[in-house]
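Recall that a protein's primary structure is simply its ordered list of amino acids. Everything else, from secondary elements to tertiary packing, is in principle encoded there. The following example makes that idea concrete.
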Amino acid sequence: MKIIIAGAGDVGFHLAKLLSYESQDTYIIDFDGERLNYINNHLDVITKKGDATSIKLLKEIGVHSADLLIAVTESQNTNFTISVIGKSLGAKKTIARIDNPEFLCECEVDFNKLGVDFMISPQELAANEIKMLLNQASFNDTVAFESGVFNVLGATLTYKSPLVDLTVKEARQRFASIDYIAIAIKRENVSQTIIPRGDTTFELNDQVYFSVPNYSMKNLYPIIGKEQFHIKNVMILGGSSIGEKTARNLGKEKFNVKLIEKNKEKAEALAEELSDTLVINGDGRNLELLEEENIRETDAFIAVTGNSETNIMSCLVAKSKGVKKTIALVENMDYIDISQTIGIQSLINKKLIAASNIFKHIRKGEILEMANLHNIDAEVFEFEVLENAKVTKKPIRELRIPREAVFGGIIRDGKALMCTGNMQILVGDKVIVFSLPEAIETVENLFK
């Protein structure tokens, strides 16, 4: 598969990184020679310095034979131009990163006819991610498959968790009545993700990801040492497009939402737009203002200003005032790894979310859904089992699943089934699989 990526920023780099594990024929174009040198030194892709809107350059790298052209520069207009030109020159499919969420709604303009097959808005995706995190407030990462029939949930183990100091095998025996699978562990000060085996021990402050059927979610709270709680009062810091979209989403679901915006004109405009939100003009870093707005009675604090450090610090202040759920938007991907260390429940990066969403379009047809987990460089997939797929030939224990991957559950006829070694996967099943990047290609082959 030949893939051309225009833009070597965070979205483009993360996409290229995912593709480099799969031996795809990948090209990446950017003006910035320093970025391209970094990519050349770290990834197995072909780089080209120059303007991706150049017809000559696109012809040089063979855009006519490209299966996919992905335009993810910082400029929406540039991305549109690249997509339209690339499609005209023969690219089979084009994807453009956009900033205007209006384009995602049904409108009078048929963008497909113009040459843009699919559009993605990082702001829109981040706002949707925030809403999902609030709906499972006791967890700091959450992914739902088949409308929640199966869920992947992440939580940091505190001293209240009875899992701490138990091995995976001991935990399974002690909590045999609860259906769950521990699919991954991110340990403090350890860069590599741990795929739990029977003799793996859960440790204090481990970030653990569980695959859980819907009917068992309420039973998971006691074993992670947390209580289930519902969020009603939400405070948003920052009237950015993500802040506005988040407020709009939450207002529709009957949350009590306050939004703090420092710029007076912007605050006034937001107040007119958001009828279900109380908009406050002020500096959200001002502790006195937060106290006046009853920060201590707030269930969730969401910081989405344009400054990552402001977002992190304001969330830490909110946590110190008793706020149960804190979510901070960060631009620097390196910050994602430290969320469990500094005590913020969830750090999200809109570019990482966007890259993972685009990656879905690169996958083969048997993949129905995929998601990225925030704290670890790995993917969760939902595969549909096709006729004659290798996974249907033997019981799970005999499939030679790589150590860097684990089956998290099966959805059969709309019902959740836990994976056991003796289970036989059937045609038509949907299988949840967690995989580190180096094992993705091997896992995919099992479903062919």
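Residues 122-135 form the longest helix (14 residues). The mean pLDDT is 89.
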